[in-house]
Amino acid sequence: IRMEMAEFEKSLSEVYTSQGRYSKAIYNLKNSLKTALQIDASALQRDIYKMLAENYEKQGNTKIAYDFLNRHYVLKDSLINEENQKQLSNLKKQYEIEKKERELEFLQQETALGQNRLYTYGFGTGLILLLVIIWLLLTRYRSQSHGHEVLLRKNEEIAYQNEQLTHLNEDLLEFSELVTRDLQGPLANIQDVCKR
Questions:
Q1: What number of other Cβ atoms are within 10 A of residue 45's Cβ?
Q2: Total-model pTM
């Protein structure tokens, strides 16, 4: 029932987000996250972190948004790694089962037919299949890591651009203050002339 409550709070926050009520959405997401942490619902935590990052970003609070986005990617990577480990373990078990089946088949055929080649071909095929699967898993992991690195670089670029904009705003403020001070004297003289 706690899982349903956490999912309900998450769904409610989606409605608030779509309405532009980001503070309400964040409040519900934090309540949902608290429950998700208590019941150890990792997939729900991952989704909530991402939604919190989006809502904070829409509020203009990029620092907190960045923190939640990092938490999202760390948890996402952790879940993917767990899933990959399970898949690899299952593949290993499947491979061991297939290997034993091939050995039994080989012995039966060797006794009945005296053929040794069938075992060699079966074992070679299994090994190639295992290598192909491992290669596919490694390729998938690398592509996900690359995407994460690209995101980090983009975040660094955004931070640099924000810093540049801050400096430009400061320069513009100094310029406007200087112009205001420089124009006060001549304007006062013009007012004195007009009063006479």
A1: 21
A2: 0.45
